Amino acid sequence: MKLSEAKAQFIQTWGSLATQWGINKTMAQIHALLLITPNPLSQDDLMEELSISRGNANMNIRELIDWGLVDRVIIPGERKEFFLAEKDIWKVSRQIIKERKKRELEPLNKVLEQLQEVEGDKRNAEVKAFTETIGNIRKFVSQTDKSLDTLIKADENWFWGSLIKMIK
Amino acid sequence: MKLSEAKAQFIQTWGSLATQWGINKTMAQIHALLLITPNPLSQDDLMEELSISRGNANMNIRELIDWGLVDRVIIPGERKEFFLAEKDIWKVSRQIIKERKKRELEPLNKVLEQLQEVEGDKRNAEVKAFTETIGNIRKFVSQTDKSLDTLIKADENWFWGSLIKMIK
DNA sequence: TAGTAGTTTCAATAAGTACTGAAAGCTTAG
DNA sequence: CTAAGCTTTCAGTACTTATTGAAACTACTA
Question: Which of A1, A14, B8, B48 can pair with A32 through a Cys bridge, CB separation 3.0 to 4.6 Å?
Answer without folding.
Answer: A14
